[in-house]
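Example 5.3 — Phosphoglycerate mutase-like protein
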Amino acid sequence: MSNYTAVVGFFLQSDPVANGSPVALLPRFGLEDHSEDCWKQFRFKIDNLNSLAPLGTKYKVLFLGRHGEGYHNAGLKKYGHEEWMRFYSLTDGDDEMTWAPDAQLTPLGHSQAAAAREAWRTESSRGIMIPQKFYVSPLRRALETWSGTFGGTRDYSLFPEEGPTVTILENCRETYGIYPCDMRLPLSVLQETYPPPTYQFEVNFTEHDPLWTRDERETDEHVQERAKRVLNVIFKEPEIYISITAHGWFIRGLLAETRHQPYRIPTGGTPSNFMIKSKLTAVTYRSSTRRYQASRYSTGGLIAKHNIALIGTNKRIIHFYSCFYVNQIIDK
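Solution (predicted structure tokens):
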């Protein structure tokens, strides 16, 4: 079993006084190093950590991105929190908008994804490490955000050799239940818009949504458990630089699982960073995970991303559209 712990020191998002930012597209995705060769130096540090890591320890960097504005976000802004929660969140839409099932991006949401792409181009010119592997939620607002940021027309400035592929994971989705905007579409419908080889659904991905129910909402603790399963998947792979495009509450669960301080992420943005340490024990597992309850926050702004660094005996660094380090340790 594994235990992931955030490690601070590289990104602004891990600063004790940082509790969120209304600006989703932070310069250098929150990297504290302002030098001209900051990303080159960052890569050198990650390579050095991995080369000196004990057996079973890996470092990875995760780029975690929150989707752009969806129609459900627009509905919340239109009606206000009280009226939205009382009535409209339980419906499929109104006379002007449709936000369920499986809310899509608004025009603003699409422009936020395009802004994230431009931010990646800017950092690419400065030497940032382009993700080696991509994961995304199966909900359309996340898929559309990933496509607007990394997919679509081939971007040779980001992918000079070949275009990216992305793996769609059920566990990357938003908190599910009660609200129909969080109900996903059937696999066959999604595949019509998101076909292979670019879009690869995980093995055993079911035709119909196996999780959403109308009468029960998933708990924060279970979201955190799902986030841990995603980390487990990532740590089984050899790639170091990873991108995850998902949702606000999923990212909160990931932060909680890694014991990173809560960090508010608006919709639409680019990476910020933090460090994590994970311990794998063959016989017993002692969890020091800190759980927290966080209130819902405004979804205005750009697509938010976290940069994560993972450290440990299976150390890896994860990078969001916010960033952090993760340390994974295996006891033998």
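Remark. Residues 107-125 form the longest helix (19 residues).
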